[in-house]
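Key idea: predict the complex, not the pieces.
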Amino acid sequence: MYRNKRSMELADVEVWDGNVANSHALRQASVDVVSAYPITPSTGTVEAYASHNANGYVDGEMIMTESEHAAMSGCIGAAAAGARSATATSSQGLALMVETLYQASGMRLPIVLCMINRALAAPLNVNGDHSDMYLANQTGWISIDACTPEESYDLVLCAFRIGEHLDVRLPVIVNQDGFLTSHKAQNVRPLSDDAAYDFVGDYKEVNSMLNFDKPVTHGVQTESDWHFEHKAKQNAAMMASPKVIEEVFEEYAKVSGRKYNMIETYKSEDADIIIVCMGTTYQTAQVACDKMREEGIKAGVVMPRVFRPTQMDKLVETLKNAKAVVCMDRSAPGGQTGLLYNDVTAALFNTPYRPLVSNKIYGLGGRDINIGHLSTIYKEAQAEVEAGKLDGAIQKWIGVRGPELKYYSVEG
Amino acid sequence: MSCSLIGGCTPPQGNKEIKNLKSFSTAAERFEGAHVLCPGCAHSIIVREILNATNDNLVVSASTGCLEVCTAIYPHTSWDCSWIHIGFENSSTAIAGAETANKALRAKGRISADTPEPKFIAFGGDGATYDIGFQWVSGCFERGHDMMYVCLDNEVYANTGGQRSSSTPIGASATTTPAGSHSYGEKQHKKDMLQIMAAHGAPYVAQVAPNKWKDMVKKIQKGFDTKGPVYINAMSACTTEWKFPIHQTIEVSDMATDSLVFPLYEIIDGRELNITYRPKNIVPVRDYLGVQPRFKHLFKPEYEYLIDEWQKRVDKDWDYLQRREESRV
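Result:
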């Protein structure tokens, strides 16, 4: 076992923000190489980890690079050399990294990226929305979403197990909302260092560049003759990952008592109106949902815990009895519908189930979304169900000043 | 049989004794001749000379470029050593990541302490080094990784068909700065990458050329013996983009070093400069340019002044190098 030599005594309940929670998960996983570059609001993950390192709790190495692109390049070099590697970033940093994100997944290197979600400029904005999560959407990284510091801690530990599983061998992003989660200290019930490392386990080395008796060429050139087959194999691993993810979630429940699901649901089983959303909005929507239930609206909330790969079958299973599904996307859609809307409608299209599906664009650049907004959304959706059709348009922008914005008319 | 230990079981190690050219031809080759670089390309000569200078285990990276696309075409590889390519700009950081992994795995005991330390080498073209990967190289040198970065400097984006880079010398006709009825081609002077890398305080930087192979092997071995980041600027004459006949690579290289357009020297610890080759007969710059059709328009009367200016520049630079060597500062 190659766990850190010095362990840290932790209380049963610690008060950590999302960044500190990440740093402890990275420390307990005994990461070999953290290669990172600072950016708000993810800097805290790296700073807290550096502090663990400075105090002798980390046996691995850190590379403090000169950019996020280099940070991920360092992770790739280290991972190809047989090291467990990880980084953290947000927003513009993720955008600068995008080239290397494709390279990491294409080279099948199980790097873990702690992503603190933040809006993409312009205009420059440091607050939370899901633009960066959505930008990484087609990079071939497994993308998992956390709502609280504790969830992020848990899911970062799980991410190593998932990505490093030999049936997967893919990099994993664990998302959390910028500031709302990353900077909001909350209760976290950590595992002991030993229990956490026992769960994550030793790194399983594959084709390491430091095994000189078996030299390996990484990152070859393939043209039309072989590129397609490589991408097919990579995608097959992605499509096979849910089985592994579910196994890892099961095992994590055994050691932590906390069970994660591919799709998280709240009162959705008998719900007429379901809001589908991610991040902290999932929690706010649960409060609104309870309020609606008191008022007689059969409300529910659903969150894809695993955003990528897309869980189409599970989405259908979860949404099939709903009369209306409201997909809430926290990212500027760029002249299309939001990704959650696209996922949900794609999942339902080849089924007999036909709830009214609408799309709300909300919370850009950290704009608040509160119980009032969500209650209104439930009520409007209820009215649409009663009318038997959407109120004029598929997509509406919520909480933005100026004239009402709605797109994709459903009026004949 | 593959060794089950991470790190491998191979004993070796250290620099190889290279007495004459025959030692190269009989040396174990870790860069196979079966690649698709152009006939006459200097890249393969340089890479072979570098890899053959040591018996140590090697971890090699390459930037996107001629070397990479011609030597690792799936399902083939020319590399009988650990090798990685990520992208155009980050061969330096790829190797820095591997070098850091080596440190971490040794500290944790995943690689045993008695496994010989490997050498970490990154290759990049001048586009990857002077331009797009400049920041990455600079970052690696500032952080002091124990690695050798080799720039295969052919003064042009050869892999993409001959566009100018910031290493392209003034007056060269490149596809994005072509000579024409109203232009003499490239307008900017070549960036002085060696001085820039020396300014990082790197323990060892040197210019090499494949025609001066003894000088080159000496410098490479000195680089391998140096702890910390080592920068090697290797002149790589490009038959395709400099447009000389494919059998004249070494002759053109000789003219580059003997005209002092490409002087061979080294700088230790960012300060101590040593000239390592003094041509017995200095060749005029005009003659060096004359054998390369990329400069043929400079011989028109209206552009001849550029050749004269170039000669003056080379004289001045050579004078500067000699004074700096003498002053021992």
